[in-house]
Here is the input.
Amino acid sequence: MLSVSDAERLIFDAVRPLHPERNTEVVNLLDATGRILAASVSSKLDFPHWDNSAMDGYAVRFDDVKACSDSEPTILDVIEEIPAGTPPQKTLQPGQTARILTGSMMPEGADTVVMQENTRREGDSVAVLVPPEKPGQFVRRCGSFYQAGNPLIEGGVRLQAADIAVLAAAQATKVRVFRKPRVAILSTGSELVSPEDHLQPGQIVDSNQYALASFLAALGMEPLRVGIVEDNPETLKYSIAEALNWGDVVVSTGGVSVGDYDYIDRILEQLGGDLLVRSVAIKPGKPLTFAQFPKQRALYFGLPGNPVSALVSCWRFVKPALLKLAGLHRGWEPVFVNAKTRVELRSGGGRETYLWGQLLATETGLEFEIPGGSFSSGNLINLMQTNGCARLPVGTKRVEIGETVSVLWVDTPVSHLG
Ligand code: AMP
Ligand code: MG
Here is the structure.
């Protein structure tokens, strides 16, 4: 049995990111949210494109107004008004100013903007009452944020609203992103039926198929639901072989323990798999199979059938592996945050233990709470609304109320006041 850190290293090292030349597609910018940019993008435009005003006020020559004061204001002639979207028509001469609005182009001859709160308008002239602190004040210089030709946004980042805004401003209306990794999902077990089927005694609903489809889609993968496969070596072998041909990754649940009907590991070996992980000293989720298939260029995760164990294994191992595969350059690793526990946490101490619950964002920092009701890996109901899993290392049997615990980040903490 491998330690969690050894298993993690074997898994993450085996993952090769999608090749940035062979595995990309071009999408419309509005469809690119959440996608991973394949290569860096640069712009032919400087940002800002031209010198412009950061304030509503007056464009001036610094030398004209540097000595003014409330008692001895500088009076300037207002020679034009420069609304947004209209280039200035005139060049400022000494003693002149132009009315300017935020974002408007600076006129020739002006080097500074005085904010309108520091002026008093008097017909066609304006009195400047407070001198600017320095030349260039409130002017956004052409190219001061970004100079044309440099990399604007690097490849390997996941595009979010702010990135989409920058690409739109750079007029990159189409972008090259990594294709979504194909992940085939199989549920193994002769006891399983689909949610829409009539349940017979002894049967259970295949919730894992739905859990995985939802988890993978939210992660930006292309899931393929292969369906339920009974515990029959021939059927399993056929379905797994097909799944490996289609997918970059295959994720199955069930059939990886030591029961009489647990065939997965043997079948993976027969299909040419290189089994790197067979079980991990983790709770929940000890039976975990990870294999690589060099011929099919595919990876295989065999997760425990228990629905709680399956999802916790996904959060701990599958998610980082898939994000690395998907082309994310940085930040694909699991995220752990410190939180103060609101309840006493317990573990057997023999295996690295993950206790699912809620990360709460309070005014004084993150806190962690586990759900009420029966806390058992057999109780799927209890897993609802999980956004973090407290990690108790091997040897830690108790964490007292108020102590700090390391929590695996699953989702955004919920806001919690008081
Ligand atoms: P296994 O890992 O195959 O021994 O399954 C462990 C437990 O998880 C058994 O109680 C199964 O009935 C249950 N289980 C297995 N697969 C699924 C599934 N796809 N959806 C819900 N429960 C499952
Ligand atoms: Mg089973």
Remarks:
- The pocket of adenosine monophosphate (ligand 1) is lined by residues 187, 189, 191-192, 204, 206-208, 253-255, 257, 259, 304-307 (CB under 6 Å).
- The first helix runs from residue 4 to 14.
- The chain has four domains: 4-18+179-325, 24-47+146-178, 52-140, 336-416.
- The CA atoms of residues 185 and 385 lie 23 Å apart.
